[in-house]
Design goal:
There is one protein chain. The protein is built from twelve helices and six strands. By secondary structure, the protein is an alpha/beta fold. Helix 3 packs across helix 4, helix 5 packs across helix 6 and helix 5 packs across helix 8. The model has no long low-confidence stretch (mean pLDDT 92).
């Protein structure tokens, strides 16, 4: 790809729901040993759970062997008891893009957290500063009343924001309520940017597997996670002192272990919650409103569509 002193940084952004084959695709296209290697790149993970250390199986991180030949950024950044916000993601992703481009490689932002990708493409919306008093009150209510009460309250006050927040995401639930009780306005009423960020030249690709096919892949992947030692991984995290209140442990694949002692029941819950989350991923990315959508049901056939888009972009 040609570059000039004033050229924008070219960035390939790939969104796809969980278990749709993102890691296999990036390995094929961007690792030197990939059978369809197309250009030198490095991956910036847009996955809200891969930022957590020690959580490898349940977050389906790329294998270490792949990361050695195809560097991945924004993985294993913080411990499970730390909060990682969308602002943290955008800031870190920006720094990674500059670093990768300076090495004459193309940044590839790839993941399934639509909230991260949307804010990376358009920039963060302006929202009011935090109110420590209101935040403290909400945290106390969260402890006393539980997340379900606050989530249902948010659905009444700001259904648009609630539709984009998972019930386990207590931080974002409280933040949305905090905005309302501080300003009298819903968080969704604060204008999102509607113009792509000018410092980048984006190629935005959306992979859309057929839903029932995707759900079957999800169920199979959960079985494979348990075979790979997910139960042991969670036990080790608990031994390290992480609890159901730790931000990382609220993720699907981990939170379920605190609700039940029966492994088969836990497995069913993870499958159900993962499929439910995939539906939300489809909804969220549809709201972004742009992108090259590709039906991605058969990777051996559909990969060529992705390759053609990237060739056109990089020529």
């Amino acid at each position: 790809m040609k570059r000039t002193a004033k050229s924008k940084i070219p960035v390939i952004v790939i969104f796809a729901p969980t278990a749709s084959g993102k890691t296999a695709l990036t390995s094929e296209l961007f690792s030197p040993g990939g059978s369809h290697f197309i250009l030198n790149a490095e991956i910036i993970s847009a996955d809200s759970q891969s930022v957590y250390k020690y959580m490898d199986i349940g977050t389906a991180k790329a294998e270490k062997s792949l990361q050695e030949v195809l560097p991945h950024h924004l993985i294993d950044l913080v411990s499970p008891d730390q909060q990682f916000t969308v602002a943290d993601f955008v800031s870190r992703a920006d720094a990674a893009c500059k670093e990768i481009w300076q090495k004459n490689k193309i940044p590839v932002v790839c993941g399934g957290t639509g909230f991260y990708i949307r804010n990376f493409l358009y920039g963060l919306p302006s929202t009011p500063e935090s109110s420590l008093q209101v935040r403290s009150q909400l945290q106390q209510r969260l402890a006393n009343e539980g997340k379900e009460v606050l989530y249902n309250e948010l659905k009444l006050i700001d259904p648009e924001s609630a539709s984009k927040i998972h019930i386990n995401d207590e931080y974002r639930i409280c933040r949305a309520l905090e905005v309302f009780y501080t300003t009298g306005k819903t968080r969704s009423s604060f204008l999102l940017q509607n113009k792509l960020r000018e410092e980048y030249d984006f190629l935005f690709i959306i992979l859309e597997p057929e839903r029932e096919l995707l759900f079957e892949r999800i169920r199979k992947r959960v079985d494979l996670m348990f075979e790979a030692g997910l139960e042991e991984e969670v036990k080790n995290l608990i031994k390290m002192g992480y609890t159901k209140e730790s931000p990382g442990m609220k993720a699907i694949g981990y939170a379920e272990f605190f609700k039940c002692n029966d492994i088969e029941e836990i497995k069913k819950m993870i499958k159900h919650n993962s499929c439910k989350y995939a539906k939300k991923q489809f909804t969220y990315v549809r709201d972004i409103g742009i992108g090259n959508k590709i039906q991605y049901n058969n990777p051996s056939q559909d990969l060529e569509k992705v390759i053609n888009l990237i060739k056109d972009f990089s020529s």
